[in-house]
Amino acid sequence: MDGKPDTVPPPLPPPSAPRIKSFHCPACGNSLTVRGLEQTESLACGSCQSVIDLTDENFRIIATYAVRTKHEPLIPLGSRGKLRGELFEVIGFLRRKIEVEGVEYEWSEYLLFNPYKGFRWLTEYNGHWNFVKTTTQTPKPLSSDEQGPVGYLGETFRHFQTAHAQVSYVVGEFYWKVQVGEPAWTSDYVAPPLILSKETTDTELTWSIGEYIEPETVWNSFQLKTPVPARIGIAPNQPSPFKVRSTAMWRTWLILLLTAIFVHVLFLLLSNNKLVYQNAFAFHQADAEKARVTEIFDVPGRPSNVVIQSRANVSNNWLFLSMALINEETGTAYDFGRELSYYSGVEGGEAWSEGSLKDEVILPEVPGGRYYLRIEPDSEARDVNYSIRVYRDVPRWSYFFYTVGALFVVPLFHWFRGRSYEVQRWAESDHPMITSSDSEDD
Fold first, then answer.
1. pLDDT tens string 366-378
2. At CB < 8 A and 24+ separation, what contacts does 134-137 make?
């Protein structure tokens, strides 16, 4: 500190309002306003459709055109709005059109001006808006294909459409001598929410980059009081809501999957999976339909499942076991019947087989207690050896797989809706995901 009092610098003067110049149209006398001054070269009169050369001191008329329909800009000329933190004024409006298979498609372009930032564009088609500016670098092709992808600022842009465009309507001022009928070849490349546009004329090639902007943002920025026009279809670079939600959806899915794994592992650790009875038996034709009763065995623990496995050595034959698990104390019986069959042979030089030598039945929620099995075997075979095993509290992998399968339903549905969204996006491009021949095949 040198003891001198602190001095406060004077406040900076507020930015001056854009300079404007007014004059009368040399063709119809309508009052016109120039806002871009020396940075604009032409001005189109909205009353008589005359295009005036602003670089000529006598305001020479360089073109006059007739229009079938007079278009009213959704954002009036002279409107001011803040976009991306900068204040811009609408100074020009034009319509362009392309023709595809005999059908004309038109869109609107609004020229914005800021004396410190220069020119920007707002484009609108079917209620979809883009904020556009000229690129600072030339995008680089990423393949030898004329319609292949291009790279710009680390992003890969896919070719969407190339068409021959013409100016169909113009009003306001522009930084070139614009005229109705002015042609250009336009190529669009997309990486939502961005779009790269290449415009080629006889004299120059220009690249511009645009970003999708929500209609409500435009209306709020320019404080428009008219209703926001509804969006029709999907814009080439409109962000997919399904892609935006994918991260959160997959995070939730992963949490649910890990929870399912944890619960299943917990069941594996807590399950007894205990063998409580096993024995081997022999069936003889003379014993057909005769019941036999096993010795009593303990089924311990809380109410849980009981798994009864059977196995038989049948060959080209069958064995039917009518069984019941009976509680010795209460008499409660769990009746069920199981068939084991196995057939095999050779037909046409090919070996075949069907059926199985083993079977399994699950009895859910069986209370603990003392039980025995009643077995009534039947078969066409003379003699069959078979065995029975009884397990208590067996963990079931099927429940885990059912749960995982159910968890995949939501991602698959999400993927299907996302793909449908992309199919609709690319339907009007030069590279539709589904062609007319695919539709006919479907």
1. 999 999 999 999 9
2. 134/206, 134/207, 134/208, 135/196, 135/207, 135/208, 135/209
The pLDDT score that the predictor gives to residue 20 is 57
Q: How far is CA 183 from each of CA 51, 106, 429, rounded to the nearest angstrom? A: 16, 14, 20
Q: Over range 379-400, report the average pLDDT.
A: 91
Q: Which domains does the chain have, with CATH numbers?
A: 21-239 (no CATH), 272-394 (2.60.120.380)
Instruction: Give the rounded distance of the alpha carbon of 127 from its chain centre.
Output: 21
**pTM for the complete prediction?**
0.69
Angle between helices 409-426 and 241-270 (to 10 degrees): 160
In three-state secondary structure terms, 413 is: helix
Matching residue, tokens 């019947």? 337
Residue 161, CB-side half-sphere exposure with 13 Å CA sphere: 16
d(CA 132, CA 305): 67
Q: Is the pLDDT confidence value at 9 over 50?
A: no
